[in-house]
TrEMBL record:
Known catalytic reactions: a 2'-deoxycytidine in DNA + S-adenosyl-L-methionine = a 5-methyl-2'-deoxycytidine in DNA + S-adenosyl-L-homocysteine + H(+)
Record-annotated active site: C70
Organism: Cytobacillus oceanisediminis 2691
Pfam families registered for this protein in UniProt: DNA_methylase
Protein name in UniProt: Cytosine-specific methyltransferase
UniProt keyword Methyltransferase present: yes
A GO term for molecular function: DNA (cytosine-5-)-methyltransferase activity
Taxonomic lineage of the native organism: Bacteria, Bacillati, Bacillota, Bacilli, Bacillales
EC category: transferase
InterPro entries hit by this protein: C5-MTase (IPR050750), C5_DNA_meth_AS (IPR018117), C5_MeTfrase (IPR001525), C5_meth_CS (IPR031303), SAM-dependent_MTases_sf (IPR029063)
Entry's family note: Belongs to the class I-like SAM-binding methyltransferase superfamily. C5-methyltransferase family.
EC number: 2.1.1.37
Keyword Cell inner membrane in record: no
Membrane-traversing stretches: none
UniProt keyword terms in alphabetical order: Methyltransferase, Restriction system, S-adenosyl-L-methionine, Transferase
Length: 334
């Protein structure tokens, strides 16, 4: 059985990936300070977690996954950085290192960190390199790559840096990731959603690229119509820029719905419906909580591909499409 710890866990994309793969696992704990994300996680996985901080935390997982807050690395943010002395939201990634170091001689065998491409920018990469150096000091071999959700069956151009650190000298081989043909965007869209998603505010209509070709192109501040894929699902869709908009037959335009955003992050309608019970929202209003929970998550399909490669380091049997009797290769040699 694989023991997993989710830090900055959001709505539990790592756990969802393991469930989809049929991997025998135990979520030994989940750490998330956002109360709404915790309630959503509990609704999805029938747990009774409470909001808690990663600071001073101590557990012993096999796989540690952390998607520390990205706002201060993001190209759309204030670029405050993630230095450990800055005390920004993104600097919380250093708490993960403290957790690993405090475990002493015992360490997680795999650490997966996801963040925005902005961590590789010239004014931010010093923090990223420091993270890699610290992980190396702790005994890990690091590999990283920018992965696009579109390469894993999801029609969303969401590019994120994934860093996989393996305890010892083994190197994670990103070339082994199983790529999937991008699904049709139409498979992810709802039929005839409510009119509350229609764009009616003049200031937003003026930013639709095909209606106003000149527009305000500073920092890509325009709304583009979705054709074959959407752009990055963010925490809000009723702003500019967003993940893109849908053109309706009557010449109107609409935002993506909350359910569509969840689908485009790799979650099922059943997942969405469970969390909708927790956050039904206000009648005739878009549900800002459900948008935010989706935008802050990791695409499940990408994690599935990463976990499949990590499982090559295990010995396991597959019965009826489900992995059972999971054990580490090195454990079996003992």
């Amino acid at each position: 059985m694989i023991k997993i710890l989710e830090l900055f866990g959001g709505i539990g994309a790592p756990r969802k990936a393991l469930i989809n793969l049929g991997i025998d696992h135990k979520a030994i704990d989940y750490v998330e300070i956002d109360e709404k994300a915790v309630r959503a996680y509990n609704a999805l996985y029938d747990n009774k977690h409470k909001p808690q901080s990663v600071i001073g935390y101590n557990l012993m997982p096999d796989i540690l996954v952390h998607g520390s807050p990205c706002q201060d690395f993001s190209r759309a943010g204030k670029r405050l950085g993630g230095n450990d002395e800055d005390k920004t939201r993104s600097s919380l990634m250093w708490e993960t290192l403290k957790i690993i170091e405090n475990l002493g001689s015992w360490k997680p065998r795999f650490v997966v960190w996801e963040n925005v491409k902005g961590v590789l920018d010239k004014d931010m990469i010093h923090s990223f390199n420091k993270y890699l150096n610290e992980m190396s000091r702790l005994g890990y071999t690091n590999s990283f790559e920018v992965l696009n959700a579109m390469d894993f069956g999801i029609p969303q151009k969401r590019e994120r840096v994934f860093t996989v650190s393996i305890l010892g000298k083994e190197t994670f081989d990103f070339s082994k990731l199983e790529k999937l043909q991008t699904g049709s965007i139409n498979e992810f869209l709802e039929n005839s959603p409510d009119e509350k998603y229609n764009i009616t505010i003049p200031s937003m209509l003026n930013k639709i690229k095909e209606l106003n070709p000149i527009g305000n192109r500073n920092y890509n501040r325009f709304l583009d119509v979705i054709d074959t894929h959407c752009w990055t699902i963010s925490t809000r869709q009723d702003r500019c820029p967003n993940a893109g908009i849908i053109k309706l037959k009557d010449g109107q335009y609409r935002y993506l719905t909350e359910r569509e955003c969840w689908r485009l992050m790799g979650f099922t309608d059943d997942d969405f419906d469970e969390v909708l019970k927790e956050y039904p929202g206000r009648r005739n209003n878009k549900n800002s909580t459900l948008y935010k929970l989706a935008g802050n998550s990791i695409v499940v399909n990408v994690l599935e591909a990463i976990f499949k490669v990590l499982l090559e380091l295990y010995t396991y049997q597959v019965k009826d499409g489900v992995a059972v009797n999971v054990a580490y290769k090195e454990d079996k040699k003992k």
